[in-house]
Predict the 3D structure of the following.
Amino acid sequence: MPSFYHLTPWYTFSIMERSGKQRIVLVGGGTGGHFYPLIAVAERLNAVKQAGVISSLYYFGPEPYNPAALAANNITFVRIPAGKHRKYFSLLNFLDPFKTFYGLFVAIFKLYSIYPDVVFSKGSFTSVPVVLAAWLLRIPIMIHESDSKAGSANKLAANFARYIGIAYDEAAQFFPKEKIALVGIPLRQSLMTPHPDPLQALNLPADRPLLFVIGGSLGSVRINNLILESLDELLPYFSIVHQTGLDNEAYVRSTAAELIRDTALLGNYFAKGSLTGEEMHLALSGASFVVSRAGSGSIFEIAHYGKPSIIIPIPEEISHDQRTNAYAYARTGAASVPEEKILTDGLLVAEITRIMTDPAIYERMSSAAKNFARHDAADVIAHTLLEIASEHV
């Protein structure tokens, strides 16, 4: 592990010196931003089986989130109830603490029956009963914070964690300095290596740059509308791959067909509700420019590929972390961050044009994105979990 804030170095463990079997529990979900970094770590843990280190992996949570991804990585799902604390008034806020309390007892029973060597938590409300149960059972805990502003679940878990991985320098203020290391965000193997000819693989023309739009899911409507209103200005110069969110795909496709005045340009526009890991890999590999929300996973994926971008955070009253994530990234020079409430289709097109037509700005942003990226986060975390597990066996 890279030393940071005087943390004892995490790379003291040689995986080739270990043999045996460890039981590792992964927890944290509710969104892809919590779930898929866990999958990235699981991929690396599974990869080291060649070195004689075999891990039995478990995913604890109220729902499996993506059962196919769990099955593909030999992860056993264990259902644990958890209550959610909403930042708005809801009668469920009065009921969910009882669900969390019940989940704590379920987690104690399930953890005791498995008795894992380490619990790795990505935070969110799903992690609270499991982390508390692990602490009561004296099972070692490691946590990871993806955002520049720590979530309440991870602030609580920090009291019990042995190590805390963070993605942004700004998150250091929320945790004990002796426990933290700056590691970035674990990325799935499917995203790690650029594709040699992504435009051909996506059946896109090679004679024009690709604009990749990542709308996300719940926060995609505003970005979708901005892109739809900009199509006549953008499509003469770009191919556009537009991830719209599953609920919005039909609307976006039909609206685009109505709005694009030159129907010949429809062949340059591709809208899809969600993308597979391979499609995301191809789009990021082939993109010349990216427009995205400010989820940490998306930011680190964009940075990994060194793509200049416009990052549009969800308003702070909806998401407490996206605005701070966006500005932390923008301070590196890798992205432009317009305020959503004043952003129009004209301003969006003007900003894309400004960056794309100035080679010096474009190269500066690309270089800043590459410098921000941390490509070994999954390896660092996997090695650390195995180090902790080796002590607990």
In short: The chain has two domains: 15-186+375-392, 193-372.
